[in-house]
Amino acid sequence: MADGEALCEAARNGEISSIKSLIDSGGDVTYFDKDGLTPLMHAAKHGHAEVVKALLDASAPWNALTPSNVSAGDFAMDAGHQEAFDVLLNTAIQAELILGTIARKDNAKGNSDGNYLDDRVTFSEDKIMDSDSKAIMMAWEKPLMEAHAKAVCSNGGHILNIGFGMGLVDTAIQQYSPLSHTIIEAHPEVYDRMMRAGWGEKENVKIIFGRWQDVISKLETYDGIFFDTYGEYYEDMREFHQHLPRLLKPGGIYSFFNGLCGGNPFFHIVYCQLVSLELESLGYSTQLIPLPVKDCLGESVWEGVKQKYWQLDTYYLPVCQSMSESE
């Protein structure tokens, strides 16, 4: 039996001593068997936490995927193997903090190529698409955007939204009659459309055209902030978070579209933990409120869309507040 097959069998059976000797003799911990599973996936699937740890210590890739997009963490999670799941989650978070192998390369909606701001976009009743048939924003997000608006408007006052899109969150924000409502939009066609729809004439609305990176010095302080940009990467949002202490008033609420890694449940949890840790280092606590979205997402929703940017049953809505205020 080849070393890879032997590792898979030992991992399935939880044979830690066999695993260690196979690793010591140069066994291939990256091996995929005929079913597309690695030794780590087998160990996770059967809840053998000690084997999971030994394989990870031997550099087994925690983020390897089966042909159907399932990771070792997904196997542990689906089978309810908490100890194995925790080992995988902790390893994944540490790896992402150092290397950023999934979150840094992937943006929330569609893994956009090229410069989105120079791209032509098309508008329909239920979506905005880029020229590559990737969805920028879709109407199924409306209940999520209403929940985000409720969170960031919970203190009233002055509200900032970065990324207008279809205007779903801004329409919801307006229902709370904030003292002021600032919108930053960088795409010329989206900006033109929102102006033609009368957004520039609303009494309490201030529209700033441009990339947030270019206009941030003009911004004031706000009681609520929402962040949802397209064509940017996780690094861009991390950069924005560095400005939160200046932009968000004490006791203010910050939220963002939590769509990164929306095609894989385990990767999404890793990302939720990662962003919570990074916000914590800036002095913010993050509460993740689960919202079921399965009923919003029949196959017909994605007709004509090149890539499903969200495939999970639950959306975790982040509500972030300075830790001194939230205690």
From TrEMBL:
Gene3D superfamilies (alphabetical): Ankyrin repeat-containing domain (1.25.40.20), Vaccinia Virus protein VP39 (3.40.50.150)
Alphabetized CDD domains for the sequence: AdoMet_MTases
Domain spans labelled RMT2: 107-327
GO biological process terms, semicolon-separated: methylation
Pfam families with a match to the protein in the record: Ank_2
GO molecular function terms listed in the Swiss-Prot or TrEMBL record: protein-arginine N-methyltransferase activity; S-adenosylmethionine-dependent methyltransferase activity
Gene Ontology CC, one term: nucleus
InterPro entries, per the entry: Ankyrin_rpt (IPR002110), Ankyrin_rpt-contain_sf (IPR036770), Arginine_N-MeTrfase_2 (IPR017408), RMT2/GAMT_Mtase (IPR051038), RMT2_dom (IPR026480), SAM-dependent_MTases_sf (IPR029063)
Superkingdom assignment: Eukaryota
SUPFAM superfamilies the record matches: Ankyrin repeat (SSF48403), S-adenosyl-L-methionine-dependent methyltransferases (SSF53335)
ANK repeats: 35-67
Subcellular location: Cytoplasm; Nucleus
Predominant localisation class: cytoplasm
Keyword line: ANK repeat, Cytoplasm, Methyltransferase, Nucleus, S-adenosyl-L-methionine, Transferase
Keyword Cytoplasm carried by entry: yes
Function field: S-adenosyl-L-methionine-dependent protein-arginine N-methyltransferase that methylates the delta-nitrogen atom of arginine residues to form N5-methylarginine (type IV) in target proteins. Monomethylates ribosomal protein L12.
Subunit structure comment from the entry: Monomer.
Protein name: Protein arginine N-methyltransferase 2
Lineage: Eukaryota, Viridiplantae, Streptophyta, Embryophyta, Tracheophyta
